[in-house]
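Quick start: read one record
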Amino acid sequence: MSETNTEWPENPVVVPWYHWTWAYPAAWVLKFWLATLRINISGLDKVSKDETYLITLWHDRLFSSAVIAKRFTNRPITALISTSKDGGWLVAFFKLMGIKAVRGSSSKRGAAALVSLTRSVRAGDCAGVTPDGPKGPRRECKVGVVALAKLTRRPFLLLGISYRNAIRLRSWDTFAIPLPFSRVDVIIEVVPVPSENQTDEQVALTIQQKLSAISGD
């Protein structure tokens, strides 16, 4: 579906009222679902709960990201969500999960989203980004996340997530949904702020390789 007719150009963070009729019951179901997961996190000793990070994970691992992120940070989280109609559902859902939203992607409102997300991080929020979203290619890190790191001078916190038992959707990223009571293994790796002599492409490739190495298939 083209994004041309599915944006919210007036105020892309405002969600139409009818989205909430779906989001409220779905959020409660999902909270219960997530509460059944047996989450094991490695690398917590590398993280300060009061530090501001660019939380980075692949798009296909978004399902459990909210509940995992709450375990290692005391900071508010602002997530980058696409301007598509599907992204509108995510704005509503994430708000109910306690996560704020900035709308944008590499093709729509990219510059405005980068400015808004930079302001949020400088104000003390962690940023939540999926560097291969919202349309892929799957597990290919785009340079936008590198620009955010250089502007904010904040380190990356890579979130590698593996599901023991999960179903896969027929989407571009084969989105994974862990089954209730499944074990979820999480590996955290902190990557320092990129130096100015590194190109965006070099940093993006490093993030791509490191995140792929710690994430499940």
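The chain has a mean pLDDT of 86.
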